[in-house]
Amino acid sequence: MSPRAWFWLASIVAIGTIAGLALLWPPILIAYLVIIPLFLVGIYDFFQTKHAILRNFPVIGHGRYLLEAIRPEINQYFIESNTDGMPFDREQRSVVYQRAKGVNDTTPFGTQLDVYLPGFEWLEHSLQARQPAKTPPRLTIGGPRCAAPYTASLLNVSAMSYGSLSHAAVEALNRGAARGSFAHNTGEGGISPYHLRGGGDLIWQIGTGYFGCRNAGGGFDAKAFVERATLEPVKMIEIKLSQGAKPGHGGILPAVKLTREIAEIRGVPMGHDVLSPPCHSAFDTPIGLLRFVAELRELSGGKPVGFKLCIGRRDEFLSIVRAMLDSDLLPDFITVDGAEGGTGAAPLEFANHIGMPLTEGLVFVHSALQGAGLRERLALLCSGKIASGFDIARALAIGADACYSARAMMFALGCIQARRCNHNDCPTGIATQKPSLVAGLEIEDKADRVFRFHHNTIHAFLELLGAAGFEHPRQLQPQHINRRIDFHTTRHYGELFDYLQPGALLADPLPPHWAQLWTSTHAEHF
Predict the structure, then answer these.
(1) Rounded to a whole number, what is the distance in angstroms from the first to the last CA of the chain?
(2) Prediction pTM value
(3) CA-based nearest residue to 336, from 351, 357, 353
(4) Contact 413, 393 (CB under 8 A)
(5) Which end of the chain is least crowded, N or C, by CB within 10 Å?
(6) pLDDT > 90: what percent of the chain?
(7) Residue 76 confidence class, pLDDT cut points 50, 70, 90
(8) Which three-class secondary structure state does DSSP give residue 484?
(9) Dihedrals φ, ψ of 442, to 5°?
(10) Are 84 and 358 in contact (CB under 8 A)?
């Protein structure tokens, strides 16, 4: 029985018991002074739409907000740090909540972080600062072989599948994306009815399980792909090679979260964990990947097609670059996922010790493409704890063209990081398939919060861009972002990383740190 059902049952029993006892002992009526107010609070909690916790846990849910109200403010790093030291702390999470709710997100008493701690970063501002642009710039994705290019926002919803998320969470994200004109990545779980109800633009992600375009043997089905790829809301297709949180493992949907509807969408049997294979069966070489990209582009009617990966062995990515040069087959975009990215279910060792963090991975991919003379021919997206305007500015300065965000979008929905995603009992109704908990998530309210978070974060980025004296994101460069190394030393990103000059991998001699890697690559094998 759901917490809300328990509330109604307990209230009826308590009121009935007190009423019966009052006939025997009138002073018991004093108890009504406690029971009736709590009952009225519970009724209010049940019908309000702002807080999923209170809708799902009437009365007792207030305990969480009481603890938050009386705790001392914490200005140090609290929750966790990325593997490269960038904080995703309580203060940053609080900003997401505030922007999503449309309340004042300014802070008193100056800088909230210790500026002398290693890892502190800042953007260089200009004495010729500009007013932020009224119309946010957008990124056109699609090469010369693309018949239907897509103009994307600089911030989009990262890959989160229906199954990992509830139907209400998926629909709220999609409605928010429609209102803010940004894209919603489906995740590898396929396209559900809830991805289509809101009218938002979709990036259909195809993983190693080929959910939504899967044949009886678990391989790729071109006919099923065409049926979905040609849907009007589908604007781009993303082939998932690996995910930052568990690269080399494949997706995991615990059996406890597998409903009959989800099983039908994915084309899998009930009663078992849904485990995606660790690698694709449609191709097994760099040139095979690029031919698969070209095939999907043609089957989709010329929509942009790209791939997503977390960088592992650098020579394998360079082999893909080599294959691009040899074949002149290019993806329309590449998404770099950082190892610090989140997931609903992953083995601990994979989550903590496999994959390259976003900063290193993004710089490497950007440099490799630039060194091969290919950087201007495709778009570069990234994901990995992107939550603020500064996160966007840093990512664009060091090599990206646009960003995805998953965790911050979940915070905008009301996620409290209960860390119950893989147990099917998420208290906010976001990462669960239990109808009693999903009912607490009010779709319209949460869609508005997703929209406001995106709008306010893009505005914050544009303010930073103006403060730096720039009119367009492409003016941001690695030297504009500084990082403290220790108490006495700071470096900008142009000094921290070995950025290649355009065409450097095509010249003689090769850059010293790249020569061995580049000469070992081959288009016919990873």
Answers:
(1) 52
(2) 0.87
(3) 357
(4) no
(5) N
(6) 67
(7) very low
(8) strand
(9) -85, 115
(10) yes
> What pLDDT, in 10s, does the model give residues 480-489?
999 999 999 9
- The DSSP 8-state label assigned to residue 429 in this structure reads S
What is the SS3 assignment for 220? strand
Under 8 Å between Cβ of 419 and 426: no
User: What sign does the dihedral 105-107-111-113 (CA atoms) show?
Assistant: negative
What ranges do the domains of the chain cover?
Answer: 3-70, 139-429+436-506
- Do residues 39 and 19 touch, judged by C-beta distance below 8 A? no
3-state secondary structure 307-337: EEECCCCHHHHHHHHHHHHHHCCCCCEEEEE
E strands in 62-148:
80-81, 87-88, 121-123, 139-141
Topology of the domain covering 139-429+436-506: TIM Barrel (3.20.20)
Q: Are 166 and 177 in contact (CB under 8 A)?
A: no
CA 420 – CA 432 distance, rounded (Å): 9
Q: How far is Cα of residue 81 from the mean position of the Cα atoms in its chain?
A: 17
Q: Which two three-digit tokens encode residue 414?
A: 């009301």
Tokens at 329, concatenated: 């087959």
**DSSP 8-state class, residue 485:** E
**What digits encode the pLDDT tens for the residues 248-285?**
888 889 899 999 999 999 999 998 889 899 999 999 99
Q: Is the pLDDT of residue 6 over 90?
A: no
The pLDDT of residue 31 is above 90: no
